[in-house]
């Protein structure tokens, strides 16, 4: 395998890893926010504004918390 092919393979593996992490994050957010916003395990017959707003706010809070942690860890690494 030449250098260019190896480089492409590494890039493809990194892209696949990022896709997998994104999929895992979406699944985690969906599960956590569903449990928070829907006390009943049954899905509603129709999505109303209350549930829709709850899901949107929950996801926003989770993403903000995740970004805060990433920023904090990066700042900690830079301070060393």
From TrEMBL:
Keywords: Chaperone, Disulfide bond, Membrane, Mitochondrion, Mitochondrion inner membrane, Protein transport, Translocation, Transport
UniProt-listed Gene3D superfamilies: Mitochondrial import inner membrane translocase subunit tim13 like domains
UniProt membrane topology term: Peripheral membrane protein
Positions in coiled-coil regions: none
Mitochondrion is among the record's keywords: yes
Chief subcellular location: mitochondrion
InterPro entries: Tim10-like, Tim10-like_dom_sf
Keyword Mitochondrion: yes
Pfam families according to UniProt: zf-Tim10_DDP
Domain Tim10-like: start-end pairs: 11-75
A cellular component term, taken from the record's GO annotations: mitochondrial inner membrane
GO biological process, one term: protein transport
Assembly behavior: Heterohexamer.
Family: Belongs to the small Tim family.
Domain notes: The twin CX3C motif contains 4 conserved Cys residues that form 2 disulfide bonds in the mitochondrial intermembrane space.
Protein name according to UniProt: Mitochondrial import inner membrane translocase subunit
């Amino acid at each position: 395998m030449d250098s260019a092919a190896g480089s492409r393979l590494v890039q493809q593996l990194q892209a696949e890893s990022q896709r997998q992490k994104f999929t895992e994050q979406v699944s985690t957010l969906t599960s956590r926010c569903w449990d928070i916003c829907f006390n009943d395990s049954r899905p509603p017959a129709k999505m109303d504004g209350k549930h829709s707003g709850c899901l949107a706010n929950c996801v926003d809070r989770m993403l903000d918390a995740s970004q805060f942690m990433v920023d904090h860890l990066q700042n900690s690494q830079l301070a060393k």
